[in-house]
Structures are given as C-alpha cells and as structure tokens.
Amino acid sequence: MTDAVRIAIERDIDIVSARQAGRTLAQQIGFTSTEQTLIATAISEVARNIVVYAKFGEIELAPAHDDGRDGILVIARDRGPGIADVALALRDGYSTKRSLGMGLPGARRLMDDFDIQSLVGRGTTVTMKKWRR
Amino acid sequence: MPVPILKQNSTLIASIVSALSDQDLVEFRDDLARKIGTHRAKGVVIDVTAIDVLDSFATRTLRGIAYAARLRGARTVIVGIQPSVAFAMVQLGLDLAGIDTALDLEEGLAILARTRA
C-alpha cells in the first residue's frame, strides 16, 4: 500500500506530479490534511530547485519509521552544478536565480528533519523527513 | 490548463480550478493583464479555492499579477486561500503584502464594490 515512489523531474509540470504523489503518500501514512499540505509544499520547493538549477533529477518518496514513529521520507536528487555554499543557500532570501530564495530555507521549516549534501559539479541531494504527531 | 476569466460589469473574475504548472501561471498572468485592457476592468477577483499548494513561485506570480493589475488601473482581491495553504505560506515566510484578500468570492466582490462606492 505504501511503497516507495520515484518521480522523474524534468519539466515544471513534474513539480505538480511530485507534490501530488507526496500528498497521496502522506495521506496513506496518516498525516492530517494540513500536514499533507506542508509536505506537498516542501516537495514543490525542492522539485522546483531541480528544474531551475539542475534541469533533471528525481524525487523519491517513501514511508519512514523510527523508534515507533511513522513519517515520510522525501529525497530530491540531481546531478546538476551543485551548491558551492550550502549555508548561504539555506539563508532566507538568498538566490542565484531570479527566485525569492525561499525554496530551501522554506522547505526546511516545513519539514522536521532536513539534510543537504552537495558537491560542486556533481550534484545535490536533499533528504527531508516529517513525522506524525 | 487555461484559467477561465469571466467578466461581470467592470470586474474580471478568474477561478483557478485545478493545480497549475509554472507555465500555466505565467500564461494566466499575461492573459489577465491583456483582458484588463480589453474589458477596461477596474477590479479583479482571483479565486484560489481549488489550489492545494501555493509555493514560493506561485505566491510570487500572484503578487506580480496583482501589482501589474494595479498598474493597469485595476484592483485585485485574492479569495479562497485554504486554511492549510495559509499555514504553509506562513511557515515558508511568504506573504501577499499590500494585496487584498478575502474569504470567498462574495466577500471579494463586496470589497471591490465598497472601494468603488
């Protein structure tokens, strides 16, 4: 019922598919409707980062378990240019493109756990989790 | 999917009925800016009741639509932001500063009627 899913991110319409798949999985895991929206919005932000900065990548969604807690795991993976200064990219309002610079810091606030690994020239992986209350 | 834009007297009513891609949003923005001119609209209501996610791009585009409409002589009211969407926007650090919002279409039309009276 709640298997891992992968969504290829190549065009802006894939952002919509990824967040809809995220909402569906979050619902199956038992998140409230408000929490589903927070998760879908966070997915939208990291998926857009792939389209804007890396062009291609994928979003992986899976149920997460830890110490009796249930949650959702979201991994955004790309082989794009990478982020030279991750700390800077996580600052509100910082952007190298014409965006608000709210994507990564915003996604971090919407989720419970947030990790970003990036190598310049190799790509970026954002791993986020949210736990049921 | 195009966003239908209806005309009622000097007001344009745009109801976003399904999730929009970034491209859809940009097309909607351009279409609306054009129709404000062709219909000589003084007010615009954008109904986002059916929208389940307003992320940073969508919020920025809506804000741009409202500012551009004002420059074209029309006042915009955004109506129907769902409770959970509002909550997510606050956590993202987004706002619609300087733009009128209302609970629903009826309320939005009432705001436009009041400012014209």
Strand content of chain B: 15-25%
Q: What shape does the CA trace of chain A take?
A: globular
The largest sheet of chain A, given as strand count, sense and whether it forms a barrel, is: 5 strands, antiparallel
Number of helices of chain B: 4
> Spans of chain A with pLDDT under 50 lasting ≥5 residues?
none
Query: Largest interface: which pair?
Result: A-B, 26 and 23 residues
Instruction: Characterize the overall form of chain B.
Output: globular
**What's the order of the H and E elements of chain B?**
EEHEHEHEH
Radius of gyration of chain B: 13 Å
**Class per helix and strand makeup of chain B:** alpha/beta
- Assign a percent range to the helix content of chain B: 40-55%
**How many extended strands of chain B?**
5
What share of the residues of chain A does DSSP label as strand, in percent?
25-35%
Strands side by side in the biggest sheet of chain B: 1-2-3-4-5
Textual characterization of the structure:
The complex is a heterodimer of chains A (133) and B (117). Chain A is an alpha+beta fold and 133 residues long. In chain A, 39% of the residues lie in helices and 31% in strands. Chain A is built from 4 helices and 5 strands. Chain A has helices spanning 12-29, 33-54, 86-89, 103-110; strands spanning 5-9, 57-66, 69-78, 113-119, 123-131. Chain A has a 5-stranded antiparallel β-sheet, covered by helices on one side. In chain B, strand 2, helix 1 and strand 3 form a beta-alpha-beta unit.
